[in-house]
Every structure is written in C-alpha cells, then in structure tokens.
Design a protein that fits this description.
This protein is α/β, with parallel strands linked by helices. Helices cover about 35% and strands about 25% of the residues. It has an eight-stranded mixed beta sheet with strand order 1-3-6-7-2-8-10-9, sandwiched between helices. The protein has a two-stranded antiparallel ribbon with strand order 4-5.
Length: about 260
C-alpha cells in the first residue's frame, strides 16, 4: 500500500498532530477540516492514489457536455506555527470507499507515523434529540483513560457507551492498535436533520479542537454560516408545520348538500 501514498514534503516540527476527516452525518467532520485548511492557509503536502480505493460510477455534465470521470480526492495538508514548535497535518477524504476502508485508514496512519504525529483527532456527529436552535454540545471519546480526563477539562460531554460509525470512528480504533493517542469530538446534530449540512455542529467541534491544539482561528465565517442555516431550518419548520395544519384541519369527508343534518 505504500506505493499509493505520495508525499511532496515531510515536515519535522517539534510536536505534530493530525486531524483526519471523511464525510459523515451533517458533514460535521468535513466542514470542520476544510475550514481549518482554508483559514490556516494549510499547504498540500501529499495525497493517496484513489485508483486503489475508488471506481467512478458516473460522470458530471456541464452545459450539456460530459466531463471526464473524476475520482474522489484523499489529500494531506500541513500547517506549522511560526516558531516551528508545533505542526498540524489535516487529511481530507472526499468520500468513504465502499470497500477497502480499513486499508485506506492504514495508509493515513502510515503517513501519521512517518511524520511522527503524536495524536490523531477525528470528528463526527452525535445524533440526538436536540433542537436546531439549541446550543450544540460536543461529545467525546478517546483511546486512553488519561485522554478522557483531558476531554473533561474542556467540558466535553462523556456519554460512556456509544458507537462512532464510518472511518471517522474506525481510525481511532486502528490508531489505538498502533499505540497512538486518539480523540474523537462529536458535534450534536438534531435527529430530524441528519441529511442537512450542520455548520453549527462543526463550529462547536472546532471551538473545542482549537483550544486543545492551542491554535488561534477566526471562526466568524462559520458562525455566520451557522446562523444562516438555522434561519433556513426555521423557515422549513414553519412551512412544514403550516402544511401539516392545512392537511389535518380540512374536512375528513365532503358532506352531501342534500344530506339531512341533525342538530
């Protein structure tokens, strides 16, 4: 599998962490990772060859013209503090493969160990009965009891037993197998809105993650996006409620005009 990994740079900061991200419910993880890449001006330092893990199942059409098949990207980005004391590798996978997910995660962890990453972070969604207008909490899970104590110090919700689906969860278990530290931060997502991108959950996760990494990040744009999505959710909720009321307040049957009415 090492042949599928292409690294253009191998930075060597004093300490290094990695955030690994794939799509998931509410796009909590992917939104957080891409925002980090953008606002930190992280540079691309490598990628994983998609041919081993993906097969195109269709093509895009633009202005009625078919475009060439496109493979999902799996890329590594890097940010380093000005004094080179700390570095952050951000892995962004555009899709989770139908199969060979275990092998893909191994490739990501191979890069992490090659770059001497001390800790792996991942993000995911915590689907719960929260309302979209509520403040979103962040749940947490870690590979060791010591890291759980660290999560507690950041006011992360510890739910005891849970399951983290997909590669955003699998990478922690595989990191633990390699003796690496790992933490997953899960942003709360309303159970009725799992198919909608949830920047509010990503914002909550990034608030905790940046404090743990001791990184200063301007979250203004993500905050504004979260407000706009909340407002759109409000409009959808009002429309659906109105349609429901209209439907169930109409007469159940049409009474014949000639039918006698008892009073």
């Amino acid at each position: 599998m090492k042949d599928v990994i292409k690294l253009y740079e191998e930075p060597t900061p004093k300490t290094c962490s990695m955030l690994a991200s794939w799509p998931g419910i509410g796009d909590v993880s992917l939104t957080a990772a891409r925002y980090l890449v953008d606002k930190l001006n992280a540079v691309e330092i490598g990628q994983i060859d998609p041919l081993t893990f993906f097969e195109p199942v269709g093509v895009a059409v633009k202005d009625n013209v078919v475009e060439s098949p496109r493979f999902p990207e799996s890329k590594f980005y890097y940010w380093q503090s000005e004094n080179a004391e700390k570095g952050l590798v951000i892995f962004v996978g555009e899709e989770q493969p139908v199969s060979k997910g275990y092998e893909l995660v191994n490739c990501v962890l191979d890069v992490a160990q090659k770059l001497k990453v001390a800790r792996i972070y991942s993000c995911a969604a915590a689907v719960t009965r929260v309302h979209h207008s509520d403040e979103m909490n962040v749940w947490g899970a870690a590979t060791t009891a010591g890291l759980v104590d660290e999560l507690s110090s950041h006011n992360v919700v510890l739910r005891g037993n849970l399951r983290i689906a997909g590669l955003n969860g699998l990478i922690l278990g595989m990191a633990k197998e390699r003796g690496m530290e790992g933490i997953c931060l899960l942003g709360e997502v309303p159970a009725y809105a799992t198919q909608i991108a949830n920047p509010k959950a990503s914002l909550a996760v990034l608030g905790i993650l940046t404090r743990m990494l001791d990184i200063t990040l301007d979250l203004t744009e993500l905050q504004l996006l979260a407000i706009r999505v909340d407002e759109e959710m409000d409009r959808i909720a009002k429309r659906v409620t109105a349609e429901f009321i209209d439907q169930f307040t109409e007469p159940i049957w049409e009474q014949d005009e000639d039918e006698e009415q008892d009073e």
